[in-house]
Design brief:
Elements lengths: L1 H7 L3 H16 L2 H39 L8 H6 L9
Length: 91
Amino acid sequence: MVGSFSLGLIFIPAILLLLAGVLAMVIGSFEVSLVIFAVAFLLWVVSAVLYGALQGIFVAIMYRYATTGVVPDAIDRSLVEGAFVPKGFRQ
C-alpha cells in the first residue's frame, strides 16, 4: 500500500542520526557517538509510536472508504480514491 511506504519516511531523521553516530565513532569520538546513539534511539521510539498511530488512522480511513464509500470531511477525497489503484497500473 502506498500509505505504508510514505508513512515509513517518518524514520528518516532517526536513520540519519544513526549514521551520524557511526560517523562520529569512525572519527574516534566515542563519547559523542554514544550521545548521538542515545538520541537516535529516543527519536526511533518516538517515530515508531507516531508511525503506529498514523498507520492506524490510515487503515481506518481506508477501511471505511472501502466498505461504505464515505470519506471523512477532514480528508481530501481524491487522496483516498488515489490510494486504490489496480495492480500493475501506474499513472
